[in-house]
Amino acid sequence: MLVMGHYQTTPKGSSNFSSSLKDWQQKYLEDSNASIINNYIRINKMTAFMKYATTLDEQVEILKTRGLVINDEEKAKEVLLDIGYYRFGAYLFPFEKKYPSKKNRDHIYKDGANFLDALDLYYFDCDLRRLLMKYLNRIEVNIRTYITYYVSNLYKTKPCWFISHAVMKSSYVSSFYAAVYGTKAFQDNPTIIEHHKKYPMDRYAPAWKTIELMTI
């Protein structure tokens, strides 16, 4: 079609096309802006809760502003320096208003919650762990000795029965060296070193030596 001496190159319906193009450009800009904003929010969410190191004075003040009763601040500082603010927080958790929920945790303490109550809980936990470890260690030694004695006598011709497919699962046997015997802790153990010096052809020390060094 000739218009003013020139051919019209714009196709029919060009006004609709231009309108669609503008709409697409507008949508693209809106989507781009939305993407930028979302990324900004995401980054801020990742960094908004990044915490900085605090002094003992600051730690005590934080606990007080959250409603924790601290009668002796100097004693509290000694405790926090001894135990650590982060670790001690686990013993303060039961005294928070939202306990046991961790959702939207605000660290606000119940009315009357006292620093010394959390300290007593910490000492109780330490004493209980010490008591349990004493007997758990004896139980572990007993179980290990029992297994070694009875299984070793049941398979007298297999002093290294712990890597025998006839005794143990194949998956356990195939992974035993890498997972247990080949570890630095095992290879550096004086009992293992001495055994292989005396018996250089043995790949493993017998059960009564090897299992004695394993943990249950």
Provide structural commentary.
By secondary structure, this protein is mainly α. It folds into 3 domains: 2-47; 56-130; 155-216, no CATH class. The chain contains 9 helices and 2 strands. The protein has helices at 14-47, 56-65, 73-83, 85-92, 115-154, 170-181, 184-187, 190-198, 207-210; strands at residues 2-3, 6-7. A hairpin with a 2-residue loop joins strand 1 and strand 2. The chain is elongated.
Structure, briefly:
This protein is mainly alpha-helical and 216 residues long. It has three domains: 2-47; 56-130; 155-216, no CATH class.
Name the descriptors.
3 domains, 9 helices, two-stranded antiparallel sheet, 61% helix, single chain, disordered N terminus, 2 strands, 216 residues, mainly alpha, elongated
